[in-house]
Model the fold of this input.
Amino acid sequence: MKKLLEEALKRATNYLENLSERDVAPGRDAVARLAKLNGPFPEEGLEDVAVLAELDEFCSPATMATAGPRFFGFVVGGSLPATLAANWLAGAWDQPASFYEETPATAFLEQLALGWLVDIFRLPSECGGGFVTGATMANFAALAAARHVVLERVGWNVERDGLFGAPPITVVVGAEAHAALMKSLGLLGMGRTRVVRVPVDGQGRMRAEALPAVSGPTIICAQAGNVNTGAFDPFPEICEHAHSAGAWAHVDGAFGLWASACPSRSYLTRGIEEFDSLATDAHKWLNVPYDSGLVFVREAEALRAAMAVTAEYLPPTTEHRKPCDYTPESSRRARGVEVWAALRSLGRSGLSDLIERTCGYAKRFADGLRAAGYEVLNDVVLNQVLVSFGDAETTRKVIAEIQEDGTCWCGGTVWQGHTAMRISVSSWATTEADVDRSLEAMLRIASKHARR
Ligand SMILES: Cc1ncc(COP(=O)(O)O)c(C=O)c1O
Done:
């Protein structure tokens, strides 16, 4: 085992050490070589070190350098060093985090980390929470709690009786709600498109004055951090509107919720503590390994009512929190270990600095692009930048060449009818030099194509 793990360490450190100088996107040849692994299920097994060698030699070159400092696609953080190391140690433990009685260390760490997170996000202390796979499942778990409560208020037990014959639930979302939220609604039987959509402004913020009058079982879903612009919905108005009508207020804050951790950005999350449920990711801006999301529900019992199961062979309820009562999964990876490691290694000041720094780099990108004559389509309030290099075709060409060039990697989008390149600065590993080097590549490529 020792020799094998030392071999893994050697290969992993070699990979990480080369990350900042290699092309961000893998080469076509490297991706094509993956096919050499094809073949029928082998009759005989392979020695462990040879398995590792095969993995490294064929797959490492075909990876996208998302763990490196110049990947700006989607919303992707790297893994903070302490979280990668904690992930390795926790892998050796091979502990789930289902019951305190079964795995006290992981259950304990998750409870500790949850308490810190409630403090970071300035949520009410009675808030319950769980460690899920990502924001999609965080939204799912939160909305399951919401569904439980709004139907319970009209005398319907949805966990017991399902949705057949249940009173209808009105679901209100912003016109720019993320597709993952809609997927969660679909998984819960509330429909991906059977929603009331509230118009938004030019940044994608819900227009509070356009919120519909609601009554009966209702869930209103807001957003903290639009995936394109980084904009935040007007939380105080939305919560006031929801609560005055007895509705449930939920917020999808996959990455934006982390603005709360940074004094200079926390104005963006003003009123966040009024929500009944919140969803966020740890694998995005907190920079822990995949898969890691977080759900919070003010009324912890609502989340438990939606998620808990009992069986004769399972440990009975004790004074200890039962992690599996708060997540869709019964057995799962103890992903709270890495969340704890991230928070322990950063501390309050380090976390604030991570958010501040990445937001500052987004602004540096925006300033540099604007100065060169390109149109930045969003107000850069957070870590997201949208830039147009001219018409849709030109912008698409520039994006494709930037990806091919390999200095950095950015994706494309269409923002309210305008084709744009997205820059999302979410990694702890990015430095000012990485921003300048990437900007230089963007401007060099764009100048060949773009009309300014
Ligand atoms: C606002 C928002 N919600 C949900 C998601 C989905 O997150 P995940 O892929 O972690 O499930 C994203 C991803 O970018 C997002 O930006």
About this structure: The pocket of pyridoxal-5'-phosphate is lined by residues 75, 134-136, 178, 180-181, 223, 225, 227, 252, 254-255, 281, 293 (CB under 6 Å). The mean pLDDT is 97. Residues 336-371 form the longest helix (36 residues).
